[in-house]
């Protein structure tokens, strides 16, 4: 009888551990690619010129994601463009350098944008 009780306890512990691991993995993925990216874009005024779904002053972020989808250096390229600015890639309106962003924040934004395709 004691063996059955131990097996039940071990099964319950394993189930709880797996549930916690799944919850942490989901939260981590959500923070990297979900509203965390949008919140950062809003805080840093990216959404003053960009929209997720439609062109405004700058290109729609989904269009950016589609353009660079599948390119091996897309995140590095976009991180650089976010930090340094750009002109002529999407039209005549230049994107200014985002000097208020850290490289880590720019990389977070680039990663999030690439999930929007």
Describe the structure concisely for a colleague:
The chain is mainly alpha-helical. It is 62% helix and 0% strand.
Name the features.
5 helices, 2 domains, 117 residues, mainly alpha, 62% helix, Cytochrome Bc1 Complex, Chain D, domain 2, elongated
Protein model, in words:
By secondary structure, this protein is mainly alpha-helical. Helix content is 62%, strand content 0%. It has 5 helices and no strands. It is elongated, with a radius of gyration of 21 Å. The chain starts with a helix and ends with a helix.
CATH fold title of the largest domain: Cytochrome Bc1 Complex, Chain D, domain 2
User: Quick one: biggest sheet?
Assistant: none
Count of the separate structural domains: 2
Low-pLDDT sequence parts: 12-35
The number of helices is 5
Query: Into which percentage range does the β-strand content fall?
Result: under 5%
Query: Which bin fits the share of residues in helices?
Result: 55-70%
Oligomer: single chain
The outline comes out as elongated
- Could you give me the name of the CATH homologous superfamily of the largest domain? Cytochrome c-like domain
